[in-house]
Every structure is written in C-alpha cells, then in structure tokens.
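Aim 2 progress update. The chain analyzed this quarter is reproduced below.
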Amino acid sequence: MDSILRITEKNGAFRAFAADTTELVNKAVSIHGLSPTSAAAMGRTLTAASIMGLDLKDEKETVSVQIDGDGPVGAIVTVADRRGDVRGYIENPYVDLPLKNGKLDVSQAVGSGYLTVVRNLGMKEPYIGRVELQTGEIAEDIAYYFMNSQQTPSVVALGVLVDIDYTVKAAGGYMIQLLPGANEDVISKIEANVYTLQSVTEMLSAGMDVQRMARELLLGFEFDIHEVIAPEYKCNCSMRRMEKALISLGRDELEKIIEEDGKAELCCHFCKKKYMFDKVQLKTLLESAKGK
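Predicted structure tokens:
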C-alpha cells in the first residue's frame, strides 16, 4: 500500500515528508498507457502533488502542479487533495527517449518552460505561483519553486523506476523543508545525509518502507511522525461534471451538436472514463443553458 509520512524534527528545525507512491503511479501508467519516459515524468509530478496536498486544510481544497515544457511530453497536469489523493494527465503519454547515463531522460522529455502551482483554497481567486523550469527533472524544479515563491529552503527528491514490462517497480520521494529554527549544524547534517543516501527508487526497490527511508534520510535527528497517509490515484469526474462542461459550451454549440450529431461523447482527461449523452439528454441540457 502507498504511504506518505508527515514528519517534524523534535526542536522544530524542519519538517519532512517521505512517500512511497508505487501503486498510484502504476495506476496512472495503466490508465494512460505511459511509456517509460512519460511514466517517469508524470510519476514524479504526481508524487510531488500528492505530498504538497497534505498541506491543505479543507476537504474541498486542491493543489495543482503543472509542468509546461517545450519537450516532447508536452504539458503535465496533476491535482491533489488534502488526503494526498491525486489525478493527472500528460499531453503525450507515448514519448520514449534514449537513456542518458543509464537513466530515463526526463529532463530532455520535459524541456524548458514553466512550473505552475495552483492552490484552490475556497476563496474567490486561487493562489498561483509560477517559476521557470531549472532542470526539467521535476524535483529540482519543485525545490526552486518553494525557495522562490514561498521563501522556503527545501530538499526534494523524486523517483520512478520502470521495470522491463513497463510497469513501475518503485516510485516515491521525499521532501525536507527548513523552518526558522534551523541552524547551520542542522543544514550541514541534512546535506551530509542526502549526499550519502541511496536514490529513492534504490531504497524502495530494495524493500525499504517509508519509515526506514525516513530514518535513513534523517539519521542523527530526533523526529516525530505526525501522520501516515495512504494516497491513491483517484478521479472525481461524474456525469454531473460532464453535464456542466456541455452546458458551458453555450446554447449555439449545443444546438449544433444536437443538429449535426444527435449525441455527444465526453472522455475524462484524468481517468479516461467515457460519458455518453443521447439527443434527449442534450435537449434537456440545452434547456438548462437557455435558462442561464
């Protein structure tokens, strides 16, 4: 089962998260038919969004992590809630590039562009933070976002290991965020731990659980685990949402669909579920549109 730990250092010097997201990334691979390179790019972004979702306060709030690069994978959009449940899509799920130093070349697949974080907190306007992509490797870009948009020094690592059958053998990540109480000794010790640590996917594929990964990451520190979350790849699409999408097209477009096709099929970007509307249903929606 996937899990994310929410951790705080005993003296309040930093907070941290350790995540195993293998199952939810595998579900994304199955839904979207992802190639290994696309799986790595989307899986890292899903993991980042899932971790960031734990900062939300209300059930209705969401955080979206969007990658808009000029590389072949195109746009990546992920949305998470406060339970860490996450969904996403990628513009080109089939991109596969030659390995770079024996690893999937996510940076080349993503290219140059922007990382955007949208926090819908139930207010009239969402909070939007946007930074230029620094490497396209996702983890470094997330750390850069936190430093520049929230002035929070952060260490971020994300990984996806794809097996020979294109399933995900391991996926997860960790994030350490320094708090105002952090001194130079704390920073030096974190840097030393991160430098000697195995990669996220090496640890997970070797059978480590997130508790063991956290102990390795935070060696020499005393810390509390406040919460253990079990995130899932979960879509919130519904017939009602699709009805609203059709109504939003406007009366003219709905009338055109009724006249020319007599039916409509909508497919959810996030889970690929299809919704069918016959002529009678479309006419009912048209009446609703006319009432607006």
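The longest helix spans residues 36-53. The chain is about 35% helix and 30% strand. These observations will guide the mutagenesis experiments scheduled for the next reporting period.
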